[in-house]
Amino acid sequence: MFSDKEKNIVSSFYNKLDEIENKELLLSWKTGYAIALFDTCFEDFADDNEEDEYTSFVFKVVSVEGNVPIEISSAGYFIVNYHNFPQKIEVK
């Protein structure tokens, strides 16, 4: 299911998806954090390299502090995958 590039980065989080439903999560990077609710995940691919398939996770933002590597949509959602995965994710 996971590529070799992403397996060690996202698999443990993926295996806990049932446990985090409807719970606020703290996603931490070295430069800041986001508090968010998990929404869904889907198979994704890089625009410039169709062979780079990976799993992306969609979150609904509650709040953000610092400079985090996410782009929040006008509807308040953001995506993380192995390219910008947080160093730590914990239930708030």
* Model regions low in confidence, pLDDT < 50 over at least 5 residues: none
Give the overall pLDDT as a whole number.
93
Class based on secondary structure composition and strand pairing = mainly beta
The proportion of strand residues reads over 45%
Quaternary organisation: single chain
The main sheet comes to: 5 strands, antiparallel
Spell the H/E element sequence.
HEEEEE
Q: Taking Cα atoms only, what radius of gyration do you get, to the nearest Å? A: 13 Å
Categorize the overall geometry. globular
Total number of helices: 1
The helical percent reads under 10%
Strands side by side in the biggest sheet: 4-3-2-1-5
Q: Give the number of DSSP strands.
A: 5
* Alpha-carbon distance between the two ends: 28 Å
Describe this protein's structure.
9% of the residues lie in helices and 51% in strands. Strand 2 and strand 3 (49-66) form a beta hairpin. The chain has 92 residues and is mainly β. The protein has a five-stranded antiparallel beta sheet with strand order 4-3-2-1-5, with no helix packed on it. It has one helix and five strands, in the order αβββββ.
Write the layout of secondary structure elements.
Layout: H1 7-14, E1 24-29, E2 32-46, E3 49-66, E4 77-80, E5 88-91
Antiparallel strand pairs: 1-2, 1-5, 2-3, 3-4
Please tag this protein with its features:
five-stranded antiparallel sheet; 92 residues; mainly beta; 1 helix
Short description:
The chain has 92 residues and is mainly β. The protein contains one helix and five strands. Helix content is 9%, strand content 51%.
